[in-house]
Amino acid sequence: MIASVVATLNDDGVAYDIIAAIASLPNVEVGAINGNVRRIPITIDSPAANSLEEITRRIQECPGVAFVDVVFVHFETADAESSTL
Amino acid sequence: MNDDLPSNTNAVQRRNFIKASAMAAAAAVAGGTSYALPILADDPETGISWDKAPCRFCGTGCHVQVGVKDGNVVAVAGDKNAEVNKGLLCVKGYHVGSALYGKDRLTKPLLRDGDSYREISWDEAIKTIADRVEAAPERFAFYGSGQWTIPEGYAAQKFMKGGLSNNHIDPNARLCMASAVTGFLATYGVDEPAGCYDDLDACDVLIMWGNNPAEMHPVLFSRVIDRRSRGEKITLIDISTRRTRTTEACQHYLEMKGHGDLAIANGIAHLLIKHGTYNRKFVESFCSFKAPDDDNPNLHGKVISFDDYQQMLEPYTPEHVEELSGVPAAQIRMLGDVFGNPDLKITSLWCMGMNQHTRGTAINSMVHGVHLLSGHFGTPGDAPTSLTGQPSACGTVREVGTLSHALPGGRVVTNEEHRQQSEKFWNLPPGRINPTPGYHTVKMWESFCTPTDKGGDIGTIWVQVTNPGHTLPNLNKLFNPKGDNKAGLEDKFLIVSEVYPTATTRLADLILPSAMWVEKNGLVGNSERRTQQWFKMVDPPGEARDDCWQTIAVAHELFKRGADSMKDRDGRFLFEVRGKHDKPVPVWEWEHYYDVNVDESLFEEYRQFTRLKHKDLAPYSEYVKARGLRWPVVETDGEWRETHFRFSEGFDPYVEAGKGIQFYHSSTNDDRAQIWFNPWIAPAEVPDEEYPLMLCTGRVLEHWHSGSMTRRVPELSRAMPGGYLEIHAADAAAYNLSNGDKVQIESRRGSLEIPIWIDGRGQPPRGTVFIPFFDETLLVNDLTLDAVDPFSKQPDYKKSAVRIRKV
């Protein structure tokens, strides 16, 4: 699965340090920042359908990250992962 | 090997293209740029075609772009052109597409045969329902939800009230926002918020009354957090019975006891009057005062003077409010100062915390009251706004009126003029509509679960788009008896239209496989009066079919059998839909259902109802072009224009020039809103020696309501696999409990075994425990109370006395 998210940073942290922490996460790519330096575009190229949520959670838990919103999700190959109760 | 190279290369290129598109979308949203995104055009590179739809889940009404390839939904993107979400989605957006593809989708009609089911044809299924209705139309009930699309709810409403002369139709929204409805009616004389989400961009102070938008309406909350990240000053105040993710972002946390909100609202009003900081001009110009009429309890109450109001508030000093609510007097004074400051813009948000409350109508009207008393009303950023939890709780339940007392467009069955208007729009014989309200949700299920010879006069219930076997309160009284062979309910018959097996299908006699979301056309109405439309994009699996078609097919089966109830005054079928050359289309036959746009036909008929209460809707074609429009939508200079703020001159086209503010549906017929005094009253059940803890229930970020869709998504199930009981560390220590230990929790109504979580997602105070309700293997509603608000008939899921013991 491929997804992109936007991380909104707190207004009191050093953006560079926060972005570096996000970029160090596996399967994460931080995009170019246009305009608002407190909103960071990120792609997640998930090796398995079950790790998108986990990676998103880890971005959310990076110090200085206030919120993570989802923008785009491509889950064409995830069909086999859907399940029953 | 070489043969594989081109396809591998293509796959890599394609993956890179999708990744680049994903980044482009995020960069555009993050940067606020306005260029067209390549991904949102039909692109031969990916083979994906895109179209718009509102998200399937909550009541926020986020618009998504849905990517379809080879007949399957394969991608979803936040819709940058949508004002609601501006290109963003919450984490449930990861799964709004894949929720269609759980492996256990229901694909065939199933009829109970002893302890198992046998597959039957749709023809047999429709005839089975028609047989039940024909045998005893007055004992038939329809139970739906705020997940009915507008046309689906409208069809069910017309079938019942316009066809069968039967008002036993109610939605699960009775369980989530009925008190918001009665609060609006008691205050303004008409339902639904005056403000909208634009208030979140303009307010200086955001107060959340028992509301956790960081988890339940994340896109709205992130809109506020984004303002703060841009350096704007906005004060967030959380009034709640437990700490949540929302609390973490707030400058002020006011931890209250159950029903403490009643005292807090009175405490604010007390201080505004005592300090002379209420808005005298606003109050004298636009408001009157009311108090409950104890001799004849009703939504109109009794008129009181300002002096009476002041006197009634006298006892609610900050110190007394502290005693009643548990909130320190200093924090009550802080709230009084905030509301007393005319330079601030204040928006209040609330949802289940105020609605699932045996004094829900009272607290809703009181929060409106503090806004009116302080004059924080009617300009952008100054608004009391209730949120909803389902995509069309407003559009279908409140506007179409699928409640047991209501008719479309804000009408009620008890009003002769309203019945006559509805009969005219539906071209019915005079007198067809029954003037007696039907059973509300709790009464409907209580009757269904009571043997016929003991007065249980509901014999058949047809459930669509909801899961009452999971979400009704006090399940051991209101649902579970259906599965008890000794309960004397052999003659009762439960029909369930669903997409997946649920706690409700478990006891169904007939299960009908339904289409969901973009497998069908739809229109919904979100929390801010916004009506949204989408087209069918993919086929449903197997023999699953639209709920609306199911209703029309049963109606036609009855019509075919000669039932007068399914004929209009000219003898025509109630759901006649005309196509090209004005010829009727047999839409009751599935193969012809999509020969014509049934949604458009029903919506255009329904639209006639919407003008009485100035909730005007535009023609269907306008919604096809837009990402939703907020009513009233009024044609001006050849353009259909939406309304951002109701009752406010310059925004609302129905406010007369020079009036400033005009509550034009005032219950006192003088353009005034009502400021209510209501006393603090204890919850219906409070802890005692036998049951010493207070149980609160609620939702979690990962699962939407009863989890029937989201629990099928492995990622979400891994992130939040099962139910748990949150408990304060000191209480856990007192019971000798460690994280993960199992306890038996018991109320006067039921019990279950459940693991505990100390300092978990939320942190309840001492004496309170919390259980989320999403897990169908741990049905917390076996424990909850079925006491209801006297006006809205909404139950209180937030306050049940319980006891626990380690197992």
SSE topology:
The complex is a heterodimer of chains A (85) and B (807).
Chain A: E1 2-9, H1 15-23, E2 28-30, E3 39-45, H2 52-61, E4 65-74
Antiparallel strand pairs in A: 1-3, 1-4, 2-3
Chain B: H1 4-31, E1 49-54, E2 63-69, E3 72-78, E4 110-113, E5 116-119, H2 122-135, E6 140-144, H3 150-164, E7 169-171, H4 178-188, H5 198-202, E8 205-209, H6 213-216, H7 218-229, E9 235-240, H8 245-248, E10 252-255, H9 260-274, H10 280-286, E11 287-291, E12 302-304, H11 306-313, H12 318-325, H13 329-339, E13 346-350, H14 352-355, H15 360-374, E14 383-386, H16 393-401, E15 406-407, E16 411-412, H17 416-425, H18 441-448, E17 460-464, H19 468-471, H20 475-478, E18 493-498, E19 510-513, E20 522-525, E21 530-534, H21 547-560, E22 577-578, E23 584-585, H22 590-593, H23 598-607, H24 620-625, E24 629-630, E25 634-636, E26 639-641, E27 673-676, E28 693-698, H25 714-719, E29 725-727, H26 729-734, E30 742-746, E31 751-758, E32 768-772, E33 800-806
Parallel strand pairs in B: 6-7, 6-17, 8-9, 8-13, 9-10, 11-27, 13-14, 17-18, 18-19, 28-32, 29-31
Antiparallel strand pairs in B: 1-2, 2-3, 4-5, 4-19, 11-12, 15-16, 20-21, 21-24, 22-23, 25-26, 28-33, 29-32, 30-31, 30-33
Helix pairs in contact in B: 2-21, 3-16, 3-21, 3-23, 4-15, 9-12, 9-13, 9-15, 12-13
- Rg calc of chain B: 26 Å
The CATH top-level class label of chain A: Alpha Beta
Unreliable sequence segments of chain A: 78-82
Poorly predicted parts of chain B: 1-6, 34-38
| Tally of strands of chain A | 4
Order of strands across the biggest sheet of chain A?
Answer: 2-3-1-4
Q: Provide the spatial order of strands within the biggest beta sheet of chain B.
A: 5-4-19-18-17-6-7
**In CATH terms, what is the architecture of chain A?**
2-Layer Sandwich
